[in-house]
Write a sequence for this structure.
């Protein structure tokens, strides 16, 4: 009753209304932030897929070009440099390669540019030039 006489009742109702509106706006803001976060993640996944597909297209185009070419060329499919953590990762993956097939995996040490072991040259035939260049 005193609140009504002093006009506080209207103020309290207004405060309650504003607090409810604030809670509603906070929920909307949280939902919008979640939607934005999901959209960013979706975009990143889509960009990664596009990059993989572009790489695949380039690889297939190169393969078609090689197949249509009259001359036999011996080239690496891909060359990349690795150092630091990436080098450790690549070497770890190579150490973990296993096969039951005796012709499934071949590793060879080539100490000098022109010193491809005979057994490796026999395995690779015309492509032993690649081993020599990789050394």
């Amino acid at each position: 009753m005193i609140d009504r006489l002093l006009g506080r009742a209207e103020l309290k109702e207004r405060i309650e209304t504003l607090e409810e509106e604030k809670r509603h706006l906070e929920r909307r803001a949280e939902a919008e932030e979640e939607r934005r976060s999901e959209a960013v993640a979706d975009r990143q996944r889509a960009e990664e897929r596009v990059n993989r597909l572009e790489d695949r297209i380039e690889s297939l185009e190169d393969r078609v070009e090689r197949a249509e070419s009259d001359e036999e060329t011996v080239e690496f499919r891909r060359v990349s440099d690795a150092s630091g953590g990436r080098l450790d990762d690549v070497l770890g993956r190579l150490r973990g390669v296993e096969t039951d097939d005796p012709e499934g995996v071949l590793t060879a040490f080539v100490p000098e540019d022109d010193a491809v072991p005979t057994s490796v040259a026999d395995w690779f035939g015309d492509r032993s030039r690649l081993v020599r260049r990789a050394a």
Notes: Helices lie at 2-6, 8-68, 84-95, 118-124, 128-134. The mean pLDDT is 83.
